[in-house]
Specification:
five-stranded parallel β-sheet; Transketolase-like; 2 domains; thiamine pyrophosphate binding; Rossmann fold; Transketolase N-terminal domain-containing protein; alpha/beta; binds thiamine diphosphate; single chain; 330 residues
């Protein structure tokens, strides 16, 4: 049975609360960045994505790349709500010695790739989707969440071209169009039709949604699963700092904990909760996929250069790659 809409809304509010609490406790971080994606993450983690909480790296699991890695506290909140991380860890986010760093790292068993340097996550998600579709013939889907400010990075558009060229229909790109970047409005702000035209020009199947409407998100992800021969872009119109009174959609709040406003914001968010106890949700099981052999990734023979040899770096690099491939065909 799918998770009901009210529960998905409730979890979104809990994600906001946890993100505010952790960043205020750390006195650093990006609570407004987390807030704009609360519904997107709630629907992905508690309705759409197939995965196992007990085995986050199950090869059949859907992948999620949080390319806007500075929203890490919201990602951690999801893994707290699904039961993998104890809630007591939330106060350690961004603290020295905690693996719950300001940006996700693969030291965490539910993170495949470190993100935070904007513009990189989509290229990596492409690689995952490419492998799933063409090498492993596996059924998992790859989701990649990018920011609108992040779209100023040229590498995003290179990756969009790649996904389209290779017809990665197992890739779902989600654009969190919260209008604001680091210091001001992004180039095209909330012009969703302009985004749509751009993605369509790259031959993506494109769906514009209200990114705070869980029903629209559920439908969009379901629709994406039916699209063949092209990747899907879900363009979510959102608000940075959503549900933070006095802060939502305002400039000058990027990368700042809420400080003196923490108490009033938490009071407001808590007043939105309908259920204080355990929520009932269903996480779909992953389908079977072959485990990838990533053992024996080493040079088939050691480098044989002599001191003083002059070798072009690209040749040395190429030789090393060939030797790696001789030990492991991945
Ligand atoms: C390559 C790179 N350049 C700059 C930064 C610094 N930076 C961190 S967040 C951010 C703004 C991101 O805006 P957006 O993608 O819209 O995310 P939002 O926080 O609004 O959700 C910038 C420029 C970075 N992390 N990586």
């Amino acid at each position: 049975m799918p998770t009901d809409v009210q529960t998905l809304k409730e979890i979104a509010t809990r994600i906001r609360i946890l993100s505010v609490e952790s960043t205020s406790a750390a006195n650093s971080g990006h609570p407004t960045t987390c807030s704009s994606i609360a519904e997107i993450l709630s629907v992905l983690f508690f309705n759409t994505m197939r995965y196992k909480v007990s085995e986050p790296r199950d090869p059949g699991s859907d992948r999620l790349v949080l390319s806007k890695g500075h929203a890490a506290p919201a990602l951690y909140a999801c893994w707290m709500e699904n039961g993998l991380i104890p809630h007591s860890e939330n106060k350690n986010v961004r603290k020295l010695g905690s693996n719950l760093e300001g940006h996700p790292t693969p030291r965490l068993n539910f993170v495949d790739v470190g993100t935070g340097s904007l513009g990189q996550g989509l290229a990596i998600a492409n690689g995952m989707a490419y492998v799933g579709k063409y090498l492993d013939n596996a059924d998992f889907r790859t989701f990649c969440l990018i920011g609108d400010g992040e779209c100023a990075e040229g590498s995003i558009w290179e990756s969009i071209a790649f996904a389209s060229f290779y017809k990665l229909d197992n890739l779902v790109l989600i654009l969190d169009a919260n209008r604001l970047g680091q210091s001001e409005q992004t180039m095209i702000g909330h012009e969703m039709e302009t985004y749509k035209k751009r993605f369509e020009a790259f031959d993506f199947y494109t769906i514009v949604v209200d990114g705070h409407n869980v029903e629209e998100l559920v439908q969009a992800f379901e629709c994406a699963a039916t699209i063949k021969g092209k990747p899907t872009a879900i363009l979510a119109k959102t608000f940075k700092g959503k549900d933070f009174p006095g802060i939502e959609d305002k400039e000058n709040h990027h990368g700042k904990p809420l400080g003196a406003a923490t108490e009033t914001v938490l009071k407001h968010l808590n007043s939105m909760l309908k259920c204080k106890g355990q929520l009932k949700f269903t996480i779909p099981e992953p389908k079977c996929a072959p485990p990838a052999n990533i053992k024996n990734v080493k040079l088939s023979s050691p480098p044989s250069y002599k001191i003083g040899d002059k070798v072009a770096t690209r040749n040395a690099y190429g030789t090393a790659l060939v030797k790696l491939a001789q030990s492991n065909d991945r």
